[in-house]
Amino acid sequence: MRKKYTVTSILKVLGVPRSTYYRWVNGFEEYSNEHEDLIIEICKATNYRNGHRKIRAILKSKHHVHLNRNTIQKIMQKHHLQCRVKPKRKWKSQGESEVIAPNILNRDFSASKPNEKWVTDITYIQYGSETLYLSTIIDLFNNEIVAYKLYNHQQTPLVIDTLEEALNKRNHPEGIIIHSDQGSVYTSYAFQNYVKEHHLIGSMSRRGNCWDNAVIESFHSNLKTEEFQYCKFNSLVNLKVISKIDEYMNHYNEERIQEKLGYLTPKEFRIMAA
After folding, report:
1. How confident is the model at residue 4 (pLDDT cuts 50, 70, 90)?
2. How far is residue 126's CA from residue 106's CA, in Å, rounded to a whole number?
C-alpha cells in the first residue's frame, strides 16, 4: 500500500512504531543483549528482590560489566523480572503524649561509628500456623542486623532477650542510643531498668509517628515483601517460617547491597570501615 499511502500514515493507523517497522525491513530480530542471560541469572539468584539500579551495581562490582541502567531495565521488563514494589504505608499522627524517654534520635539516622545508635521494633509474622513476633535491632552505622528473636508472644522477655543478645555479640558496649516506639514492652519497667543497668541511652518515637523509627519500619516491610512475597497468611508451617527468617537475615547482612552504603552489603561496609 506504499504506492497509495505514506509509510508514516500506515504505521500511525496500525499503531506500529517506525523503529519497529525499519528493524523488520532490515531483517533484525527482537532486541537482544549479550548480557541478558547474566542478568536473568542474577535476578534468579537474588530471588527477584532487586530493581535495575542494584542489578547494575552487581554487574559492575562482581562481573565487571558496565551497562546503562535503562538497558538493564529494558531487559528486566522484557523478561518480567521487575522486583515487587512495596505498597505505600498510610499513617495518621495521634498527636503528642507523655513518653518514658525523649526522642533523642529525632530522625537522625546517621552514625559515625558502630554501636553509636541502635533502633529496635517488633513486627507480626503471620505466614505460619500461628502468629509469630519478630524483634530486631539494627545498627544505624551500616544498617546491620545486630540481633533478632522470633517468639510466639510479644511480651517483655522478647525485647529484653533481643537486646541481651545484641550486647553479647558486641562485647557489651556502653553509651549506645537505643531507639524504639512507645509500645508497652519498651515502656515497661523491666525493659527501662535493663537499659539503665547496662548504661544505654533510651530514646522513643512520638506516639503514632512511624517515621520517627523509619529505618527499622522499612526493614520489616522489606523482609515481608522480599522473603514472603509469594506466601499467603497461615500457609506455611512454623519451622518453614523460622527457616525463611534466618535465611533472610543472613542474606540482608552478607548479600543484600544497599545504595546508602555505596552498593555494599552491611558486612562489607563494616569491614571496609574497620
Report:
1. confident
2. 31
Assess contact for 180 and 119: CB atoms under 8 A: yes
In 3D space, the residue among 232, 175, 224 whose CA is nearest the CA of residue 203 turns out to be 175
On whether the CB atoms of residues 113 and 141 are closer than 8 A, the answer is yes
What's the rounded Cα separation, in Å, for the pair 253 and 244? 14
Task: Report in angstroms the alpha-carbon separations of 1 from 18, 31, 237.
Answer: 16, 27, 64
SS3 104: coil
Distance between CA atoms of 167 and 262, rounded to whole angstroms?
27
DSSP 139-206: ETTTTEEEEEEEESS-SHHHHHHHHHHHHHHTT---S-EEEE---HHHHSHHHHHHHHHTT-EEEEPP
Q: How far apart are CA 138 and CA 146, in angstroms?
A: 6
Judge if pTM exceeds 0.85: no
Other beta carbons within 10 Å of 60: 13
Q: Are 191 and 159 in contact (CB under 8 A)?
A: yes
Number of continuous H segments (helices) and E segments (strands) in the chain: 11, 5
- The 8-class DSSP code of residue 17 comes to -
Which DSSP letter does residue 264 get? B
Average pLDDT over residues 252-266: 94
Q: Cβ contacts of residue 52 below 8 Å, gap of 6+?
A: 69, 72, 73, 76
C-alpha to C-alpha distance for 202 and 179, rounded to whole angstroms: 6
Burial 207-239 (b: 16+ CB within 10 A, else e): eebbebbebbbebbeebbebbbeebeeeebebe
pLDDT at 45 over 90: no
- 3-state SS assignment for residue 117: strand
